[in-house]
Amino acid sequence: MNEHIQGYSRLNPFIAKIKSREDLCYSCNKKTTQHIVIDIHGSGIAYEVGDCVGIFPVNDPVLLSRTLEAMHATGEEMITDARSGNSFLLRDFLSMKANVTDIGRNLLKEVADREPDLRKKEELEQLLIPQHSHKLKEYLFGKHLWDILLYHSESVFTPQELCDMLMPLLPRFYSIASSQKAVGDEIHLTVKLLSYESHGHERKGVCTHYLCNLIPTEEPIIPLFIQPHNGFTVPKSGDTPIIMVGPGTGVAPFRAFMQERIARGDEGKNWLFFGEWNRDHHFLYRDYWFDLEKKGLLRVSAAFSRDQEHKIYVQDLLKEHGREIFQLLEEGAVFYVCGDAKKMAKDVDKTLHEIVSVWGNFLPEATKEYMKNLRKDKRYLRDVY
Ligand SMILES: Cc1cc2nc3c(=O)[nH]c(=O)nc-3n(C[C@H](O)[C@H](O)[C@H](O)COP(=O)(O)OP(=O)(O)OC[C@H]3O[C@@H](n4cnc5c(N)ncnc54)[C@H](O)[C@@H]3O)c2cc1C
Ligand SMILES: NC(=O)c1ccc[n+]([C@@H]2O[C@H](COP(=O)([O-])OP(=O)(O)OC[C@H]3O[C@@H](n4cnc5c(N)ncnc54)[C@H](OP(=O)(O)O)[C@@H]3O)[C@@H](O)[C@H]2O)c1
Fold it and tell me: Given ligand 1 and candidates 202, 208, 212, 233, which is best to mutate, with the most ligand atoms within 8 Å of its CB?
């Protein structure tokens, strides 16, 4: 754990600026992943590789206008923040304090109670029955506050009443993609812009849109804090081999790991399993990995899922190299996984079990025991989201 995360915290964030942004996807208009360099000069912030940064975003002005319009408000109204007791212009409160993209049950219930159209009222009441929570989740997916207010335009609220029911705008977390030994007073991030269409409208993720598109560079306006890792960091011993599995933005901490190990002069083996859509367009940090490979500091195995008819994923490459993976585990390697929790991490976990079972020639109980020991010894570490 970090011992010196000075002064700045979630409650007292440092106001940082973006130094530069660079597209990591080459001539591709379907996916945007950016390398973002944040300047923390003067903060005294010290971070470790494996740490994340928490960032408080600001809502997009376009989203703000739509929300104000649906609220029949100008933004110049004064409201009181029920949480802090502080007064705000409605415009500022909605920009910086309120979650206007997710809707809670309490708000929906109030909308239903005030809905004079009996069909619409019944529709909402059905969704609010506790046993229908999956249907409610489906109904709300891809809808923002303004969608609900427009559809239920006869449910009338004052701005204060609405603000009292909105959830707070929470910070988003990003894996740090740099080592301070290599970059000093900077934090590097690997950010995928969330962008999708739903209910006939183009929508963007609040924080990724803020970071990738909205904030001007060189202006100190990003409130951030360090979220220390919970053991997901490089091994203390420089001789320990490491296997890093990081598809997509999951690769971010492994760029930091490599910078750290190189700065320390570590001599342990480093093996990266990276995955993305196409080799030509989405090979994030390709030149950096190739350079390290050329210097004999890293081995890279890359799986490109959309370069051929059938999907090739990181776990396919792990399986292909199963014997060597098991051998490295026997030599004391640490196995790291970062990225998508819903599918990738589960599939990689299954594959690791298979590798241990096949190459260790273990029965199911012995495989479970081996995996349990890997976890207990902190040699199977995951940072998945
Ligand atoms: C520990 C940790 C580390 C992370 N590291 C990174 C990192 O290094 N890089 C990175 O890019 N991200 C990372 N993330 C994810 C990041 O924190 C954010 O969740 C992500 O960037 C999206 O934030 P947003 O504000 O842009 O999106 P939000 O505004 O929060 O939008 C997300 C919501 O949009 C909705 N949505 C998404 N897709 C669709 C769709 N197709 N249709 C309808 N609705 C949809 C869903 O309701 C979803 O919950 C990390 C997360 C954690 C917890
Ligand atoms: N909620 C979800 O279901 C979901 C899914 C993925 C990512 N995410 C989020 O998206 C962000 C990262 O996105 P990203 O575009 O950088 O990376 P990504 O979506 O994880 O994609 C990176 C690579 O992983 C592949 N992949 C898809 N399913 C996989 C699986 N089961 N096992 C192994 N690899 C798999 C993708 O292939 P294909 O796309 O060609 O299949 C792609 O080649 C994170 O915030 C993550 O949590 C969410």
Answer: 208
Do 218 and 251 fall into the same domain?
no
DSSP state of 146: H
pLDDT tens-digit readout, 336-348: 999 999 999 999 9
Tell me if 192 CB under 6 Å of ligand 1: yes
- Specify if 123 maps to a domain: yes
Inside any domain, residue 52: yes
The 10s digit of each residue's pLDDT in 304-335 is 999 999 999 999 999 999 999 999 999 999 99
Domain shared by 191 and 205, yes or no: yes
Q: What are the Cα distances from residue 89, in Å, to 57, 81, 97, 100, 207?
A: 18, 10, 11, 16, 22
pTM: predicted TM-score of the whole model, two decimal places:
0.96
Query: What are the structure tokens assigned to 146, written together?
Result: 């303004």
Print the domain residue range for 366.
242-384
Residues 253 and 364 occupy one common structural domain = yes
Give the number of domains in the chain: 3
d(C-alpha 349, C-alpha 53), whole Å: 26
Is 275 touching ligand 2 by the criterion CB < 6 Å? yes
Is position 320 within any domain? yes
How far is the centre of ligand 1, averaged over its atoms, from the C-alpha of 193 (Å)?
A: 9
Identify which of 157, 169, 133, 201 has the alpha carbon closest to the alpha carbon of residue 57: 169
Ligand nearest to the CA of 194: 1
In a domain, 237, yes or no: no
Up-side HSE of residue 276: CA atoms within 13 Å toward CB?
23
From CA 104, how far away is CA 106, in angstroms rounded?
A: 6
How many angstroms separate the alpha carbon of residue 4 from the centre of ligand 1? 29
The answer on 324 and 190 residing in a single domain is: no
Residues 124 and 175 in one domain: no
